[in-house]
């Protein structure tokens, strides 16, 4: 069984930074890919950033140049470094990862962490 624990959310002023973490534990061989989504009140969940098994990254236009997704394979953790935060970045952020275990690839979601950007 696999567990995902997100951390790092909170309240930050515009222009500030936060780093979100998504740590996987349990019966894990490796993290294959990682995605960060966010959902603001009254809006659909949107993909913010992704990192592939090969390490390639992609970002939503709204966060390019400000957010960086990365992974630490030794710690089975995916990160989202968020800089120059804006009020419109306020949302619940969810990690979504593909984990290889016992010869199969399964998709898992984190519980979500609130990010609030406000002065």
Supply Rg.
14 Å
Number of strands: 11
The N- and C-terminal alpha carbons lie at a distance of 41 Å
The low-pLDDT segments are: none
Largest sheet: 7 strands, mixed
Structure characterization notes:
With 119 residues, the protein is mainly β. It contains no helices and 11 strands. The strands form 2 sheets. Strands 2, 4, 5, 6, 9, 10 and 11 form a 7-stranded mixed beta sheet that branches. A 4-stranded antiparallel beta sheet has the order 1-3-8-7, with no helix packed on it. A hairpin with a 4-residue loop joins strand 7 and strand 8. The mean pLDDT is 95.
List keywords for this structure.
mainly beta; seven-stranded mixed sheet
Q: How is this structure best summarized?
A:
The protein has no helices and 11 strands. By secondary structure, the chain is an all-beta fold.
Task: List the topology elements.
Layout: E1 2-7, E2 10-12, E3 18-26, E4 30-39, E5 46-51, E6 57-59, E7 67-72, E8 77-82, E9 91-101, E10 104-109, E11 113-117
Parallel strand pairs: 2-11
Antiparallel strand pairs: 1-3, 3-8, 4-5, 4-9, 5-6, 7-8, 9-10, 9-11
């Amino acid at each position: 069984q696999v567990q995902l624990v997100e951390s790092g959310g909170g309240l930050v002023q515009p222009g500030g930074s936060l780093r979100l973490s998504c740590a996987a534990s349990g019966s894990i061989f490796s993290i294959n890919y990682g995605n960060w989504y966010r959902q603001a009140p009254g809006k659909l969940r949107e993909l913010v950033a992704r990192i592939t098994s090969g390490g390639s990254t992609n970002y939503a236009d709204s966060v390019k140049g400000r957010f960086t997704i990365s992974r630490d394979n030794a710690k089975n953790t995916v990160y989202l470094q968020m800089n120059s935060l804006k009020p419109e970045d306020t949302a619940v952020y969810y990690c979504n990862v593909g984990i290889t275990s016992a010869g199969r690839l399964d998709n898992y979601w984190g519980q979500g962490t609130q990010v609030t950007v406000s002065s």
